[in-house]
Structure formats: structure tokens, C-alpha cells
Amino acid sequence: MRATFADFTIDPPRFGNGAARYIRCHPDRDRLAIGAGGRVELDFALDGGELPEQLTLTLIARVSPLGESLGWAPIDITVNGQAVISRFTVPGGARPREVAFAVPGEALVAGLNTLCVRGCAEARGLLWLYRITVEPSRICARMHLMAEERPAEAAVCAYRTEWRAPGSAEWRPAPRLLVHLDRGEGSLPVRLAWRGQDGAEASIGFRPAMTEFYGHRRAADGTLTEYRGVLEGRSPLRDSALEEVMHRFRTVEGCGSGAPGLRQELRLLIEDGGPPVERVMWGDPSGHSGTVSLLAAEPGPEAEVTDLVIEVRAHSEFAEAGEVAENLLHDSWHKWLGHGDRAWLEFTLRRPVAVGHYVLTSANDVPGRDPKDWTLKGSDDGEHWVDLDSRVEESFAHRHQPRGFTFAATNAHRHYRLEITRNAGEDQIQLSQVRLFTSAPQPKGFIGHYQRAGEAPTGYRGTSVSAVPEPGSATAPPRTVEQWRSYLAEYSATILRVADEEELSEVDDGQRAAGWLGFEGADEESVLALEERLGTRLPPSYRTFLGASDGWLNISPFMWRMRPAKTVGWLREADPETWSVIRGGEGEDWDDTAFMDRALLVSEEGDAQHWLLDPADVSEDGEWAAYIWASWYPALGDRHASFAELVAEERTGFEDQAAHEVRMGRPGTAEDLVAEGRAQALRGEVRMAMATFEQAAVKGSGAGAYLGIILGAFLDISAAHHWIRTGILGDPRVIEAIGMEQLRAEAAPLYLRCAAEEWTGTPGGYLSALGDILPRLPDGVDGVVGAGGVAASGAATEGDDGTAWMARAAAFAPPALPESRTFQQALDLARALADRGATDQSWAVLEAALPHWHCDSPHRIAPVVLLTDPAFREVVTPARARRVVTTPRGEFRE
């Protein structure tokens, strides 16, 4: 027989091989609500041939809560009047549960059969029914499913694994495999396949209860192996270390047709010893299957702790070639190279940190030098070590390839040791970079599809739980009237700054002067009158939007006017002409008719688009789903969880389109970011500070751009002149924000030092700022013609061969910026030692003084003189330059 189902997660409900009747129950949002004495009857047909010995009835249901306690709603189930189960109570909780029952063959008849789910009279809550399925029994699979329901929900399965080459008799140990996949239905996978970010793929099948698996694996380099594993144990999810590596998504199923579907949570963990997975496919005992492709994300700067490394050592290094272990901490093309096919690297941090993710980057040449097997260890004292993570048979597909590895971090350590026990075949080992993180990058979400047995596939998407902002956070969409006023005022300022006169044609002088594209907020009486006219309460974020502004102008490039409360209405009534056009639809698959009949129209005038809210798609906190319908869409646009999220999405799109103009705005926000970045830099959190300065620069801060480039020069001085040329001397915003005196003292000498080391001609004819900074020379000095071949504007004249620029650079004496008395004394002593060739002693003096460096100027974050003064050229090596900015300084010194 074909599976019979009733899906109540969409409106109207969808039925397969059956039809339903409701008695004292009703559709409620994305489910069917059955109260005491209510029932739903589902008719389904069986052909006249041999009747099945048994059918399996599956319900996905949840009991409504009673305040803070679990609800109680027992049900009776009958088929053709014969009891299947009596007074059964669906387990309570925050998620829908899947429960299965056997329907005996003697209860079935040829032809029409009737299934009845009835709420018991003594129920003290509602049964929220999401789905009913009647299908042929898979007895063994169901037995294992029910037996392992609790472990499926609560445990991560850990496997001891092996692999072997095709045709070989020898199985070799492989990395441990961790597996957890739970859609909230208590169903264990029977087959699983995944692809890693490096292209490696695996496909396996499980024995019942997931006690063993067998399959195959293709490595990133194309090597194919058999793959098998034995269950070692199950770890509870309350283990905080496993929670750190678990992916959790809020999901929507049934979104492929544009209609909302079943909302659940997907918990996913597949850790096979390689990089994070990017695609997962699975099937369960019921014949259901799913596929998801994860939206990858880079590790956030707040998770990186590489800057806390104060010392790195190696078993050996090629110091004469500059290929030393210190290079591993730099984001550059340099590398570390050591002797032999085995090696160790040790990293000492400023303080203990629980590292749970690390990235190794292959070097520039000779793939045979790449590490292949290794163990990462941790220690509190640098002598006694514990194993944290082991890898075997790893490979790098190309040069300068970063690969990330995640493990369950349990304790903080101050020392970490990477023991490489085998490389790819050469007699030397190399890496370009090692980075340490407290946690792995979390995917932002996923897209995919889910297919129930006997049915067509349906859309499936998810958003990372960690990516969903908490209410009231800085990134959360506005909800209160006060939040809306602040949000809309900021948005108005951006639009007024970048929009042209034609786009602002309806904005009056008063709105321009006030920087407010809205109106007075609707009072409570007006909002209540609207709700009475509609016969329903408005969703919270739209209700408070009206309280902040009763209507709006230019809320997006394609929506020019929002309706005030007095004209908001159902689409069919507020705009019957548009309603009739949309409702007509096109093609057999047009399924928006019901939606358009119930949609609330909140927009008034736009570029052939309308903003609509759906009263049948309501979240737990009362928000209605929001959509845009436009004439150029094939159907409804993307679903948004609320009106506020729709506005936020449109604003993001607008700012992306007007990126250049938007970068010049929000000075207050940019100033806050500069202050935050400066504090991070003084704490020694270099990478985090650079990310913050970059955000400030994007939002229009010349100071943010300057400080980020200066900080980067300490990490990689070889590339600094490129950034100074374009990002400082070529940007009027930076010059205006920082001022000529500091540019002469820091940026110009730093640029000239870097450029002189690879001088190829003039430093750029368009750099009028450098022309103004360098001294002008009299005619005839070193063959210089006129003012060094420089026009009055400071730009190089045509035909200049670089001699003039070099002469002017040689005559340039940068001013000294004031330093504190303590640090100035250290500079003087260090110069004297350097002049005598005592470079190590000179550095010891500077290193001891670094924590005491401080400056009241908001545009200084480090003693740049250490990079620009020729006296320190041999003292401050690249490794020591990095130490300068990773040392906490001033008020943040330890």
C-alpha cells in the first residue's frame, strides 16, 4: 500500500491517500489542536488483495504546556472502531515527539478504513498534532527505533575505526568517529554520508542500534579505502565539552513550496578526524531521508588565542635561511622548516587557555614535507603532557592550504605541543602557520531537503542557534517602541546621506531637518481601533513599529511608503485589484491562493511590490511571518520570522548596495569601535583588534583604517608599505583624522623603510601627501632638478626617475613623538647598547619597558619608533616586532 499521511504543519493541511474530518478540534498555526472530547478522523483505502498483517501508525505531536508545568492530554486511538491504544499520553516537553503504534491486521478491512484520534474527556491541555502517517510495518527497524529512542536523543556515539586499501588484507587504525544526528523525533540513522571541507567523502551503513558500521571513504587526494567501526561508548550531551563541538540549528521543514512547515531543532555532530563537514546525508529506519549543506563560517576573532603565544620552540629549524618556528605565528608567506621526518613544536601562552580548535597551514613547496600523523598535547608546567587530539593519514591538497581540526576541549593549558610522528615522505618537515582557537567555526545555518517515505521531498533549512541574536542584544531586530525609534533614527540618517533628490522627493523639509523619515507614533487608541477592525491582535514588532512611527517613507529602495494604522488592512479588502491579480496565479503549481486571502497588507506604495504579514504563521512569542510579493518574483519572496526581521533584512540589502556611501556614516558607532579596538590592541589581542579596526574603517573611520595598518606592520613589515601607500597616504579621510604631525613621525618613515628595501622607482606619482611630507631640496643637490622634480602640488613630475625621491627621502628626519619618561629612558639606553652591537641586551631593555609604554593620544597604540629608528634595525626582528604588540601595555599590563 502507499503511505497514508496528514500533514498539519502547513495551511491548508496536506493529505496523501486519505481525507480527514475534524470534530471539536481546529487548525492552530502549524498544527491541529485537539481538546478534551475532540477528535480527528482519517479515512484511508486498502485494496481488495491480501490485507497486511500489521500497519505502523506514527504521530508527531506535542502537549500544550500549562504555565510552567508540562501539560497532560491523554488520547484514545481506534481503527474501524477497534482500539489501538487507550489513554496514551504523549511525552511533554518543548519539542514535538514522534511516537509509533502497531495496527493489527484484524482491525483492517478491504476498501475504506477509518482511523480516529480522540482527546480524552479528562485532558487538562491540548494535544498539538503535527502529522499522522499510516504505512506498512518495518517491524525490526521499529523495535530498534523504540529501544534506542532515549540514546538517540541524549548521546553521542563514539567509534573505534579502521580502514584498508582495496584488495589489501590489512586494516589500519583510523581516527575516532563521533556521530550524533537528532531531529527531535528520536530516530537513529541507519545510513550516513558526509563530505568534509577538504573534499574528503565517506558513506557508511549502521547495524541495528548503531553498534557497528561499514562503508567506504575517499580522501581529499582521491585515495579510496574501505571503512569500518565498532561502537566504543555513548557520551551524554550534558558533557560540556561535546556541547562545544555540537552544531544546533533551528529548522523549518516544508519551506520548498513557500508555505511554512514543521519547526524543530536539528542537532548534528560528525567528527571524523578531518576538517569540519560541509554536507551530510542520512536515512532512518522508517525510510525517511535528509540532506543538508552547511553554510560555513570562519572562526571569529574573539575565539582566536594565537596572540597569547609568547614563545614557540621546535626540535630544529633553519635559522640561517630565516625558516624558524617563530614564523608559524605570522600571517605571511614565510615558513618553518625542520630536519627529519619527525618533529615537535611547543607553544607557551601568556595564560592557560582551553584550546578546542587549531589550524595548520601547509608551506610553499615540497608536499613530501607536509605532516601526516601527529598528536596535539597540553601541559600545565611544560613537562607533564596529556594527549588532546591525534590525527593519522592526513594530507594537504595544495600549497598554503589552511586546514582546521576540532576536538572536545576539557581543560585549559598554558603549554601546547604538536608532536609530528610521520610526514609525507621527505627528510624534512615544514608548515607555514599554526593558529589556536578556543572553539571551532560554527556554520551559520544550512539549506537542504527532507523526504518522508512514499512522499515527495520538501524544503528543509536551518539557522544556527548561536547565530540567532538574543532579544535586546545589539544585533537583535527592534521590538519595543524605544528600540524602533533608535533603530529608525539611525537608518534615516544613512538614507538621507546617500539617497538622491529623486528618491527623497516625498520627504519634506521638517523630516530632513529632524533626520526622521517617519511620522508621529500611533497612539494606543489608534492601534486598538485597527485591531478591533481586523478582529485580531497585531504581532508585537509591527505593533511597536506603529507606536514609534505611524507609517514610514523610503524603508527600502523598492518600498517608498508604509501604511498608517488607519489604512492597514487585509489584502483582499485594502487592495482588491492587486489581490485579484495575485490570486489568479499562473500554472498548476500556484499555491498562494489561501495565503493571499488571509494576508495583511502593511505597505502602501512601492516599486511593484507589497509587504504582507501572515496571521496563520505565528511564532511562540506571537510574531507573524512576513513576506514581500513583487511582480518580478515567481511567487512569494523569502519568509521572515517577523516584520522586524524583514525591515532588518531590507536595511542590510540597502547598505550593501550603497556600501561606499554607507562607509562614510555612523561616526558615533565608528568611534566606539576605534576605542574598543585600541583597548584590545593594548591588551595584546592583536587579531581581534585588527578585526575591530576594520569594522570601524568600513563605517567611515579614518582613525580605524590607520590604526589597523600600523598594527599590521608589526606582524608583517614586509608588506606594510603597500597598505600605507593606499590605505593611509592615499586616503584623505585618514590624513584628516590623524594629522600631518603623526604621519611624519610614524607612517612616512615606516613607508620609506619598507619601500627602500625593495625600491623600484618613485613611490607613486599620485601620492601628494608624501610629496608634502618630504623636504624640498635646492636645485642641483645630488642632481635634483628644481624642487626634487616635484610640482607645487607635491606630485612627481613626468620623467622623474626616482633619484629626486631618494634624495628627498634621505634628507627626511621624522619628528619624535613624545614618550613617557620611563620608556624614553629605556629607548636611550637601548640605542646606546645597539650602537655597541649588543643587540640582545638592547632588546632585553626594550622588552622590560614595553609593559610600561602608554600614550594618552587615541591614535597611538604602540611605539612605532622601534620599527622606524635605524638604530633598532637589527634589534627588533620580525619575531620581536610581533612581541611588541602582543605584550599588554599601559593600563592593561599584567
Entry keywords:
894 residues, ten-stranded antiparallel β-sheet, 24 helices, 31% strand, Discoidin domain-containing protein, FA58C, Knr4/Smi1-like_dom, Knr4/Smi1-like_sf
User: Which residues form runs of ≥5 with pLDDT under 50?
Assistant: 139-153, 256-260, 586-591, 659-668, 760-767, 782-801
Specify the structural class. Answer: alpha+beta
User: Which range does the strand content fall in?
Assistant: 25-35%
Largest sheet: 12 strands, antiparallel, barrel
Envelope shape: flat
Rg from alpha-carbon coordinates:
34 Å
Mean pLDDT: 81
Organism: Streptomyces endocoffeicus
Pfam families: F5_F8_type_C (PF00754), SBD (PF17882), SMI1_KNR4 (PF09346)
InterPro entries: FA58C, Galactose-bd-like_sf, Knr4/Smi1-like_dom, Knr4/Smi1-like_sf, SBD
Protein name: Discoidin domain-containing protein
Question: What can be said about this structure in brief?
Answer:
The chain is α+β, with helices and mostly antiparallel strands and 894 residues long. It is built from 24 helices and 39 strands. The chain is flat.
Please describe the topology of this protein.
Blueprint: E1 4-7, E2 14-16, E3 18-28, E4 31-46, E5 54-63, E6 75-79, E7 82-88, E8 97-104, E9 111-119, E10 127-136, H1 139-147, H2 149-154, E11 155-164, E12 172-182, E13 191-196, E14 201-206, E15 212-218, E16 224-236, H3 240-245, E17 247-253, E18 263-271, E19 277-283, E20 289-295, E21 309-314, E22 336-339, E23 343-353, E24 357-361, E25 371-379, E26 385-391, E27 402-406, E28 413-423, E29 428-431, E30 433-437, E31 445-451, E32 458-464, H4 481-498, H5 509-514, H6 524-534, H7 540-548, E33 552-556, E34 559-562, E35 569-570, H8 571-574, H9 576-584, H10 593-598, E36 600-601, E37 603-606, E38 609-618, E39 624-630, H11 643-657, H12 659-662, H13 667-682, H14 686-698, H15 702-715, H16 720-727, H17 732-738, H18 740-756, H19 768-773, H20 803-811, H21 821-835, H22 839-849, H23 865-868, H24 878-886
Antiparallel strand pairs: 1-2, 1-10, 3-4, 4-9, 4-10, 5-8, 5-10, 6-7, 6-9, 11-12, 11-16, 12-18, 13-14, 13-19, 14-15, 15-16, 17-18, 17-32, 19-20, 20-31, 21-23, 22-29, 23-28, 24-27, 24-30, 25-26, 25-28, 31-32, 33-34, 34-37, 35-36, 36-38, 38-39
Helix pairs in contact: 4-7, 13-14, 13-15, 14-15, 15-16, 15-17, 16-18, 21-22
